[in-house]
C-alpha cells in the first residue's frame, strides 16, 4: 500500500509563496513525520550513511547536528524488519538460504550475526543447498568433511561451495607419466611435510621477549587454546593454500619395488623400496629372481611402511622414510625386516593386508590354506651425534602371533570333485582381514569357505560360514567391520555377481545375511567402513546439542541425538557393467534381506572399472578410458568434470571391456580422489590432475609470471593448451574477416551470371555441360529422322518426300518452321559461347 504522508501544518493557503530555505525546511519536516524505518538495528556495525543533505538536518528549523548525534539518532530510530518475525519462522527462513547468502547477511546486522552463531541453521542450510529434501539417514551416510574435523557447519558449507567452484571452473591441465614398475598393483599419495618459513619481524606483531617483558605463556586453567593473531592466521592460510603437490608412490610386482615420482613433471626419485636384500644397491627397481614378490600392501593415504609377501612364503616389512639418508647418497633406501623361516608360509603368499594407519600388526594368507597374524618392531637407521646418519641400522624383529589350522573337512553342499580336492589338500586362502584392537582375524577361499577367529591373542574362538560356492563366482572382495568384541560384520562379493552380501557373525555362531542388490553384474566396488570425522564438535552427553538435530519444520519434534559415531559416513558404492553407480548405507540394515540404494545414477556408457570417494565426491573410471567426477549429494547427482585419460582404438576398447587379464593394461584400475585432485593408475601409466585457482584471464590481459614461464614447487599447472587454442581462433577470425575487393572485370562477370540466373562459376559449368548434352541429343535425333523418312521421285524425275506428294502448301509451312528452329539454335549457340567464355575467364582468375 503506498504511503500517504500528512502535510505539515506550516503549509497554509495564506502563504502560497515561500522562500527557498523555508520550502526546504518544511519538506524536511514532512519527511521526518513519515513512519519509515531504516533497515538497520541498534547493534548494526556498518550502518548505511545518510545523504549529505539529510545529514545536516537537525530536530527542526534547519539546525545542523554533529556526526555523533546524527549517528545516534539514526541507530535509535532504525531497526531490522527480520527481527520482528517469530524466532522459529526466522530460523526457518535463514535455513532456506544458501551458505554464501547467509555469510553476506551476517555482515549486515550484529543481531543476525548472533542468531547465525547457531550451528543448526548452517547445518540445515547445508542440507537444503546440497542435498535438497533429504532425510537424516541420507545426511549421516553421504556427508563427509572436506577439511579438518570439528570446524563446524559454517566453515564446511562455505568450503564446499569453493571446492565445487574449483572443480568446475579450473583450467589446469592433466599430466601423465610412466613409473618404471610395470603393471601398477598399488597406488598411494605422500604429502611432503610443510616446513614453515622463518617469521620475519613485523612491528606490532612479532616481538622478541626480553628479561623485562617475558613472553606470555598460557596458564593451565585457561580454557581452550590461546587466540591467534592476524599474522598467525595469515601464515596458516598461506601454508594451506600453497601446499606442494603430493608425491605418487607406485608399487609393481613385476619389478618388485615401490618408486616415488613427482606427478607434475614425471620425475622419478633415485632409488626404490623393495623386499630384496640388495634393494639399496640399485637406482631402479630390481627383481630378485630367487624370491619374487607375489603380494603387496601399500596404504592409499597414510603410509609409513610397505608389506610384501614373497613366492617362498616369507613376509617382509619395509620401513619408508620420507627423507633419504645422507649415508646412501641422497636417495631412498629400504629398511627391511624379514620373517623367520619357521614362521613362513608353505608356498606363495596370496594376500597381505593391514588396517589404515596400523603398521605394527597385519595378516597374511597363503597357498597352504593358512592365515597368520603378525606383529613387528620396525628397524630404524642408526643416528650419530647431531642426528647424523651412520652406516648400519638397529635390528628389527617380527613375530607370528597366530597361525590357523587347516579346515577339518569340506563344506557339506559342495560337489564331489570339490570334496575330493579339499580332502587331499586345503584350498588356498585368497583374501584375509584383521582387526588389531579386538584381535579378530578372518580369511576366505575362492570356493566361499569363510572362517572368523575371535580373540586370537587370548581365548580363540572359530566360526565357519559358507558364503557361496565358486559356481556363483570366485570370491573377489572381503572386508571386516567389528561392531564390538563379540560381533563382526563382513562384506563378501563374488566375481560378476549382482549383489554384495553383508554377513553378521556372532561369536556364538549366529549368522545373518543382508544383500545390497544392483541391477547388473558388479565390476567395481568401494567400501568405506571407518566412520568419518565429525564436522561439528559433538555435544556432551548431559547437554542437548542443536547441531545434530535435523529441524525440518518449525513445529517438528526434534528426534533424540544419536551419539554413535559409527553411523556417520559409512557406505558401500558399487559400479556395474552397464555404467550404473549405486550408493548403499552400511548401517541401514534392518529386518529386510535386500537393501535398496540411497543414490543410483548412470555415470558412464561402459563398464565401470574403478571407484573412489572422498569429501562427498565420487570418482568413476570406465573401460573406455574416461574418469568422471560427480557430486552425489543432490537427489540427481551432478557431474563436475570428465577426463579422457586414455584414448583407445576399437581393438583396444574391445580388450578393455572383456574379462581378460590384459584388460588391466587399458583401463583405470585404481583411483585416489582428494578434495582438489585425482590420481589414477591406468596399466603402466599414472594419470594426475589438480585443480587450479579457478581464476580465468580476461581477453587482452597479461598474467603475472616469472620470466622463465615455469611454475614453482607449490604452484599450479599453466594452462598453455587453452591459450594456444584461443590464439588459433583469433588467427582464423582475422583471416576470415579480410575479404578481397572485386575488380571491374569480376564485377561485370558476376552481373552477367546474375542476369542468367546463376550464382557462381560452378553453376555456369554445370549449365554449359547440360546444354552440350542437349545439343548432342538433338543432332543424333535429326540424323535418325532423316534416314527413316521415305524418299520418292516426282514428275520431274527428282527426289521428293512423301509429304510433297500430297501438296505444296505444307512444304511452305515446314520451311518457315525450319527457319525458326535455325534461328533458335543460333541464339542458343551464341549463349553457350558467352557462358563458356565466362567460365574460361573464371578459371583463369582462379589460377
UniProtKB/TrEMBL annotation:
The lineage of its organism: Eukaryota, Fungi, Dikarya, Basidiomycota, Agaricomycotina. This is F-box domain-containing protein. Coiled coil: none annotated. Gene3D superfamilies: 1.20.1280.50, YVTN repeat-like/Quinoprotein amine dehydrogenase. Residues 208-227 have a biased composition (Low complexity). Residues 800-816 have a biased composition (Acidic residues). Residues 79-125 form the F-box domain. It comes from Dioszegia hungarica. Pfam families: F-box-like.
